[in-house]
Amino acid sequence: MREVFHDELRSLAEQLTQMSGLVSAAMANATQALLEGDLALAESVISADAQIDAQQRHLDDRAVTLLARESPVATDLRVVVSALRMSTSLERMGDLARHVASQARLRHPHHVVPEVLVPTITEMGDAAARIATAAGTVITTRDLELAAQVERDDDRLDELHKSVFTTMNAPEWSESTERTIDMTLCSRYFERYGDHAVSVVRRVGFLVTGEWMKPVQPVA
Amino acid sequence: MREVFHDELRSLAEQLTQMSGLVSAAMANATQALLEGDLALAESVISADAQIDAQQRHLDDRAVTLLARESPVATDLRVVVSALRMSTSLERMGDLARHVASQARLRHPHHVVPEVLVPTITEMGDAAARIATAAGTVITTRDLELAAQVERDDDRLDELHKSVFTTMNAPEWSESTERTIDMTLCSRYFERYGDHAVSVVRRVGFLVTGEWMKPVQPVA
């Protein structure tokens, strides 16, 4: 009976890792759609978000069923409750990728990202997608060194987020207000996406070490 | 024994209502600090957020203890799991109020909100604080009419959020890029705050009716 329960927990972890892969791909595609003004790609990210939402509901149902059926205590209980929280973070990451894609769709056929910010947004998209994939790996492997790498990648995302503001506040910035608004929002979406990934890996860290790590303080 | 359990559930609900009151006051004060450039008030919101975070941890510990000790099933289990989710939303609302206050502190002694946006931001702050208080009342009373009012107030917040962009995109807008960025972020904080309040009242609705309501789609 315990063995069956632990198989279920492993399967929950695998589903979370699968969701991480989906939200990573969503952000990679959303970034590409944003940079290239690719309407079809943007639409595909937007419609695929429903799958991520459905995965979350399915995962949450399974977790609640496990709670009802097995009445776990101690570490087992913490694992199930953590799974519920991680699925919430991952679902939110999917939303944020969808927001980036929506911005690309909204401005099509125009490009959202001005030339001067293309390298920054490219790096933000790469970091965000990498972070989500790594968070997924941490969930199944509980590799705390990789978790530390996620934290460093998120620090880099925060720096890039600040640098977007620095670029826009420089005297050379001559873009429209609409573009300033768009870039402020998109940069914020990337930054929040990173925060959620960090929150996922910290929950794993908590399960492994029993010590809660410092809370995520989003910049801005 | 069941009676004790239901007392505990009621007490969890009361603590959630208390948190709603704290996050409502935080947003009311943060808005005032933003509009009046009141540094001391901004600082007080920022430091009070730690109390909201502590309340959330306390509430979550109690909920997990309840799960471990009582092994609730069916509706009782749903109530405890919902309490965990509501506390997450409320904690996040506290963060968003802190972000608004941080913006006021960052620009002090300058005012963040240009004259033309003072009425809009005033109304956003009022709506946000009212929504949070109402969500708290819905948690203990399960008053679904009041829940519907929260949805309407949130719709109004979304309209105001869009109107901030309309104002900034108008040819008359001659504010600095910094101000455009600040107002984009602040408006987004209010809008997200409303979304979280709606998510709280929808969870209550779900507990009462067993029917999940339509998901919140944040604008922008």
From TrEMBL, chains A, B:
A Gene Ontology BP annotation from the UniProt entry: intracellular phosphate ion homeostasis
Residues annotated as transmembrane: none
Matching InterPro entries: PhoU, PhoU-like_sf, PhoU_dom
GO cellular component: cytoplasm
Main localization of the protein described in the UniProt heading: cytoplasm
Annotated compartments: Cytoplasm
Taxonomy, superkingdom: Bacteria
Span of domain PhoU: 16-102, 121-204
Entry keyword set: Cytoplasm, Phosphate transport, Transport
Role according to the record: Plays a role in the regulation of phosphate uptake.
Known partners and oligomeric status: Homodimer.
Name under which the protein is recorded: Phosphate-specific transport system accessory protein PhoU
Organism of origin: Pseudokineococcus lusitanus
Lineage start: Bacteria, Bacillati, Actinomycetota, Actinomycetes, Kineosporiales
